[in-house]
Amino acid sequence: MNSCAVVLDAPVLVFTDWSKTYGDVFTVYFGPRRTIVLNGYAAIHEALVKNAEDFSSRTQDQASFVPDGKTLGIVREPYGPKWKEHRKFALMSLRDFGVGKRSMEGKILEEARALGDEIYAKDNRAFCVSHMMQNAVSNVICSIVFGCRYEYDDMEFKVLLKAINCIFSRNVGVTILTQLFPPTRFLPGARKQYQELKQNQGKLMDHIKKRIKEHEETFDSNDIRDFIDAFLMESKKRHGDDNSNFSEQEHATIVYQLFLAGTDTTSTTLRWALLYMILHPDIQGKVQQEIDSVMGPNQEPSMVHRSQMPYTEATLTEVLRLAPVAPLTIPHGTSNDTVFRGYNIPKETSVTVNIWSVHRDPNLWPGPDKFDPTRFLDDSGKYVRRDEVIPFSIGRRVCLGEQLARMEIFLIFTSLLQRFTFKLPEGAPKPSEEGVHGATYQPKPFMLMAEPKE
């Protein structure tokens, strides 16, 4: 069966429903393009972890998804020496610039304070937190990549964030069609979306190339300020090497991917967290009691507090379970001809991983659609980690920014709930807990009020 028309709007929901009929492993066709869909924790873990050598690559059509149509960066690069080299370099550089360290906590808390001040200025008026949250989170990745932060009213910054919003709010099914089947780019409905996508990708790339040029002009090998400088340093070390993977275009594409991923996904998760708090004030109250008992009103949050705050940790884990921002991973590709669960799968076959099917599995989570942090607490109130919560995926393609994202989510969330109680505006309709399935899974726009704590 050709499945294109059926899955365009919300493929993750369709795939999860089909898994009940066809099992955890099935094939769909997008035109002539064959895609294996993996559902359920057991099948996903078996493929991505136990058979990682076969399921960790990308397919050859990935170039159609990158801004210049050829340079794949880390996200789209097939599994192999080039991907390993770039990923290792990126991980080491992120650590060098503070990811996982107290120095990064300071940068995140600086943005949390700025965000809190913006919220405080609302003076008990109803507001939408989306742009403020995106500003705060984006500034964290900007400090790592560009070595600076932007003021919230900076016009250039606003243009960049608007471009990111346009990229992530597009219809994922239409995007897949236009990228994989070029003639569809001229069809009514698809043409406009495709043109807008390329325009917004271009805006981000132009800004990144401008920042790289500025760094080249002020580069000092004795003062490596940020990721751009680190990449320039590595590129200069390999000058004259015809096989170097540290070209100017690779530089721009990797920065593009870091900037894009580091801005939208974490800010969206934090918006989900605040939505659940206003919908479940009893849970918000318990989180605030724990914050008060561990940190009090004046001590700033730190990652060392996380192990002392099991209810807060359980609450954030439930947010990640119930609202995975990327419920379908970027498609993997098979590196070899392989046999998986009795199916012969050729090399270069596209493999889609359905994280949603794991997080909403009623066999793992009784009442899977209910927001319930106690799923992750034992009888004594201690936090219980569950392997089946995989919002950042698993295996060799696990999200590069997972550690940074977890730091931001914990520190910004606890910082906000230390200062404010979030509520529904009086008389406002109750927001929906069902989100919008686009390039990412986002909450529907909602208004809230922030009442400063005494």
TrEMBL record:
SUPFAM superfamilies: Cytochrome P450
Predominant place of localization: endoplasmic reticulum
Membrane topology: Multi-pass membrane protein
Top-rank EC class of the record's enzyme: oxidoreductase
Intracellular or extracellular location(s): Endoplasmic reticulum membrane; Microsome membrane; Mitochondrion inner membrane
Binding site for heme: C399
Keyword Iron among record annotations: yes
Cofactor entry: heme
GO CC terms: endoplasmic reticulum membrane; mitochondrial inner membrane
One Gene Ontology biological process: lipid metabolic process
Record has Metal-binding as a keyword: yes
EC number of the protein: 1.14.14.80
Taxonomic superkingdom: Eukaryota
GO molecular function ontology, one term from the record: long-chain fatty acid omega-hydroxylase activity
Keywords in alphabetical order: Endoplasmic reticulum, Heme, Iron, Lipid metabolism, Membrane, Metal-binding, Microsome, Mitochondrion, Mitochondrion inner membrane, Monooxygenase, Oxidoreductase, Transmembrane, Transmembrane helix
Catalytically driven reaction(s): N-[(5Z,8Z,11Z,14Z)-eicosatetraenoyl]-serotonin + reduced [NADPH--hemoprotein reductase] + O2 = 2-oxo-N-[(5Z,8Z,11Z,14Z)-eicosatetraenoyl]-serotonin + oxidized [NADPH--hemoprotein reductase] + H2O + H(+); (5Z,8Z,11Z,14Z)-eicosatetraenoate + reduced [NADPH--hemoprotein reductase] + O2 = 20-hydroxy-(5Z,8Z,11Z,14Z)-eicosatetraenoate + oxidized [NADPH--hemoprotein reductase] + H2O + H(+); (5Z,8Z,11Z,14Z)-eicosatetraenoate + reduced [NADPH--hemoprotein reductase] + O2 = 19-hydroxy-(5Z,8Z,11Z,14Z)-eicosatetraenoate + oxidized [NADPH--hemoprotein reductase] + H2O + H(+); an omega-methyl-long-chain fatty acid + reduced [NADPH--hemoprotein reductase] + O2 = an omega-hydroxy-long-chain fatty acid + oxidized [NADPH--hemoprotein reductase] + H2O + H(+)
Residue ranges of the TM segments: none
PANTHER family reported for this sequence: CYTOCHROME P450 2U1, CYTOCHROME P450 508A4-RELATED
Record-stated family: Belongs to the cytochrome P450 family.
Function: A cytochrome P450 monooxygenase involved in the metabolism of arachidonic acid and its conjugates. Mechanistically, uses molecular oxygen inserting one oxygen atom into a substrate, and reducing the second into a water molecule, with two electrons provided by NADPH via cytochrome P450 reductase (CPR; NADPH-ferrihemoprotein reductase). Acts as an omega and omega-1 hydroxylase for arachidonic acid and possibly for other long chain fatty acids. May modulate the arachidonic acid signaling pathway and play a role in other fatty acid signaling processes.
Name of the protein this chain belongs to: Cytochrome P450 2U1
Organism ancestry: Eukaryota, Metazoa, Chordata, Cephalochordata, Leptocardii
Primary gene name: CYP2U1
